[in-house]
Amino acid sequence: MNKHLLLTIGDDPSYLYGIRFVNSFFKNKEDLSLTLFYVTPRPGDGTFINTFEQHQLDEKLVEEARGRAQRVIEEIKKKLVEDGFNPEKVICKLLAKRLGAVRDIVDEGRVGLYDAIVLGRRGYKVFESVLYSSVTRQVLEKHLDAPIWICRQPEDNRRHVLLCVDGSETAYRAADHVGFILKNQPHHSITLLNVDVGEGIWEGGIFAEATKRLVENGIAEDRISTLMVESHKVARTIILEAEKGSFAAVAIGRVGRNKPMIKEWLVGSRAKQLLEDLKGAALWITG
Fold it and tell me: Could you give all domains of the chain from N- to C-terminal order, each with its CATH number?
């Protein structure tokens, strides 16, 4: 089944970590569709002057920005095609900013029914800059349906996925997502990680359900392994295991079994620690 990813694009191709991650992570690229999404400025951004001359200047600056964006996005598509992506499945989409970059990305993600929204370092910074607003968080939690892949600075040629499971439904949805994405990527295996914080939960049942979800999505059982670690430092344990195994991606559910695994979604202490200290791997968050 075809997978469709929304990749947010910035001005500097040398810092497009989301693009780099996708290009390195996927070996079988035939069933992948990519939409390269660039939000361009609108007239009047950054100024309170409302004169005819200023409007003309704003229009000129916006057109210049759109021209730069078009060149960047076409350059990226050319490179992706050279690296094996189907040119008919790489779509370039420029959108003039309407509700703000974050809301525009969220709206595009919802309307386009994408299988994941891929944020590079710049894309995440755009989200991070507004996440401390409770209103913005409510908008995102209500409307953001697709998993988010945060690729702040992934290392090329890493392999495999560390899937964190705690018995929560969002963790099992993360398992569904990982299975769907990796079905035709046999060079990646999946390690199920349960961090036991002393609650007396039998991890065997957690692993069994997560394995069931993966198998139902087409993952062979010999590609799945399990790991249980006793620790009260959940985020730190995830980071250590991700580094030890040199995983390409760490997959988590947004809400934990008894409380948010990512408390207050992307701005809680565990999330911030993962986002700040996770090195080399992308972070996949499923709601």
Answer: 3-150 (3.40.50.620), 159-286 (3.40.50.620)
